[in-house]
């Protein structure tokens, strides 16, 4: 079993500032393995995310990054340690923290525009205004032509764009992404990455984005800060700040340098044989 | 028009083949055992024009609407309750499964003891014969709601009853409609059988009773069976089949040839 005091990257704010938007401190989440043993899924993870920051959690599958995201969303609770939103324990899920899931998770019985309208309903937009506002969000992701289509009639990339429109429609403070582009082809992925980057830049520091990915290039492209995790149990092993100007693209020299640096860290971790 | 031919062509060909085989068999067997299709048709025409068969069908259908309605309400309420509570589900579901497996005919003698040869005995058998499948279908339709959609609904801000109305009920709908279709089949079978057995009481009437009364009139017997079959198939395909197809097509769950 891992020693909890070592190997943890504690990033706790200590200056006189407003509390971080999101703050995880010594977070542990255990789960029951197939054999019935209780094993840690994430072990002593601490980090802060400040308002307006774009953070990517990077790590191999099974490192518990989705678990962390679920805890931030309020869909899951930590076994021990604290998870704070604006300095208070994270409450249940709510429209202030939108989630982009790996699957688009659109409601198949609603048209594309009705999916977006449902998000508007929950933030108190009155019925007569919903259609126009929803169409505005769909325009933002270039889907006005498919507004009345059912989700299954759209391509995978278009579905995820509709999900992005639905997630943003409630004007959330925090957007959480659980490998939302992992299942897309390269072209659709690039389009969505650019869209997400644009939305975040346009929010001018109001919106906080936390995305989980196993794609080093994606993390380097999107994030201000990349937190690298190791697998089983998940712990933070490295933090990389990326100062490249935006909008970025994958060919930027700085982005590619960060990609190779993170690769090196990951290779070293793999050669050590991981945590177990 | 082409679509209608493509959809109805094969089943109609099947029915045609069945009637052809029947006609051939009838040609070789004495008509008191196997009457020809023409004899059955004229028995049907006669019973339809003097109102015997239409009255019986109307009575049976009315009784069915009532029993099936009761069965839907009871089955859905129990199923929903059990879907909500795991302990109750594990405690009660096996009992419902046992009820479901029990032949509904087994309840008839008991129903007669409890209610006599009355309307209520027939309805009781139809309800007991169909509500377990409604309950089981309701439980499984909630069990099949994708957790991802529930989580998506919660992150949008839906909670409590709203989460049920906006996400869980619509997501459970396809399975539930499948359950209605199945329960309808059980209710139809149990009801006609119940009518047949309680035929001693003239007040009840209905298609099952017509079967009992036509025992010595083979063409009429077959005509009545045919009416029972046709009504059953018609409701199954026209009502439930269409609703089911509509829901599945809208959600992209229907693979069209």
Structural class of chain B: mainly alpha
Q: Encode the helix/strand succession of chain B as letters.
A: HHHHHHHHHH
Overall mean pLDDT of chain A: 86
Main interface: chain pair and counts: A-B, 26 and 21 residues
Intertermini distance of chain B? 17 Å
Q: Give the biggest sheet of chain B.
A: none
What structural category do the secondary elements of chain A indicate?
alpha/beta
Q: Determine the fraction of residues in helical runs of chain A and give it as a percent range.
A: 25-40%
Could you say what the CATH topology of chain B is called?
MetI-like fold
Mean pLDDT of chain B: 85
Characterize the quaternary organization of these chains.
heterodimer
Provide a count of the helices of chain B.
Answer: 10
- State the helix count of chain A: 7
Query: Regarding CATH, which class of chain B?
Result: Mainly Alpha
Report on this model:
The complex is a heterodimer of chains A (276) and B (257). Chain A contains 7 helices and 10 strands. The longest helix of chain A has 19 residues, at 253-271. By secondary structure, chain A is an alpha/beta fold. Chain B is an all-alpha fold. Chain B has one domain: MetI-like fold (Orthogonal Bundle), CATH 1.10.3720.10. Chain B has helices spanning 2-28, 37-49, 52-84, 86-101, 108-115, 119-143, 147-156, 160-197, 207-213, 218-251. In chain B, helix 8 (160-197) packs parallel to helix 9. Classes of the chains: A alpha/beta (276), B mainly alpha (257).
In short:
The complex is a heterodimer of chains A (276) and B (257). By secondary structure, chain A is α/β, with parallel strands linked by helices.
């Amino acid at each position: 079993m891992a020693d909890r005091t070592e190997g943890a990257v504690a990033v706790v704010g200590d200056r006189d500032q407003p509390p971080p938007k999101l703050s995880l401190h010594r977070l542990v989440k255990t789960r029951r393995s197939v054999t019935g043993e209780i094993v840690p899924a994430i072990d002593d993870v601490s980090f802060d995310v400040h308002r307006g920051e774009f953070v990517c959690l990077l790590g191999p599958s099974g490192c518990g990054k989705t678990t962390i995201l679920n805890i931030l969303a309020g869909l899951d609770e930590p076994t021990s340690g604290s998870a704070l939103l604006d300095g208070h324990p994270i409450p249940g899920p709510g429209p202030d923290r939108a989630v982009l899931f790996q699957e688009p998770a659109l409601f198949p019985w609603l048209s594309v525009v009705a999916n977006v309208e449902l998000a508007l309903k929950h933030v108190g937009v009155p019925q007569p205004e919903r259609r126009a506002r929803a169409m505005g969000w769909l325009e933002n992701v270039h889907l006005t032509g498919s507004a009345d289509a059912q989700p299954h009639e759209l391509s995978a990339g278009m579905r995820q764009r509709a999900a992005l429109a639905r997630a943003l429609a409630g004007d959330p403070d925090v957007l959480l992404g659980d490998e939302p582009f992992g299942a897309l082809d390269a072209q659709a992925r690039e389009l969505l990455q650019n869209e997400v980057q644009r939305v975040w830049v346009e929010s001018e520091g109001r919106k906080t984005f936390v995305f989980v990915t196993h794609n080093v290039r994606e993390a380097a492209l999107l994030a201000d800060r990349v937190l690298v995790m190791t697998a089983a149990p998940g712990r933070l092993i490295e933090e990389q700040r990326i100062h490249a100007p935006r909008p970025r693209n994958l060919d930027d020299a700085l982005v590619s340098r960060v990609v190779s640096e993170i690769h090196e860290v990951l290779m070293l971790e793999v050669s050590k044989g991981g945590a177990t | 028009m082409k679509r209608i031919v493509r959809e109805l062509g094969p089943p109609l060909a099947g029915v045609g083949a069945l009637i052809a085989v029947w006609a051939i068999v009838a040609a070789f067997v004495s008509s008191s055992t196997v009457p020809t299709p023409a004899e059955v048709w004229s028995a049907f025409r006669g019973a339809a024009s003097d109102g015997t068969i239409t009255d019986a069908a109307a009575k049976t259908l009315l009784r069915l609407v009532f029993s099936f309605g009761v069965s839907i309400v009871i089955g859905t309420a129990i199923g929903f309750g059990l879907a909500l509570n795991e302990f109750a589900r594990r405690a009660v579901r096996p009992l419902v499964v046992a009820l479901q497996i029990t032949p509904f005919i087994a309840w008839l003698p008991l129903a007669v003891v409890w209610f006599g040869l009355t309307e209520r005995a027939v309805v009781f058998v139809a309800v007991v014969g169909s509500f377990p499948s409604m309950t089981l279908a309701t439980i499984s339709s909630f069990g099949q709601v994708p957790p991802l959609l529930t989580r998506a609904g919660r992150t949008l801000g839906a909670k409590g009853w709203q989460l049920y109305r906006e996400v869980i009920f619509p997501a459970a709908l396809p399975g539930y409609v499948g359950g209605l279709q199945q329960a309808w089949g059980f209710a139809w079978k149990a009801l006609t059988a119940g009518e047949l057995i309680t035929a001693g009481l003239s007040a009840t009437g209905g298609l099952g009773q017509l079967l009992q009364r036509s025992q010595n009139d083979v063409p009429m017997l077959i005509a009545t069976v045919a009416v029972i079959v046709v009504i059953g198939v018609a409701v199954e395909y026209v009502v439930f089949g269409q609703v089911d197809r509509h829901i599945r097509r809208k959600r992209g769950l229907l693979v069209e040839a």
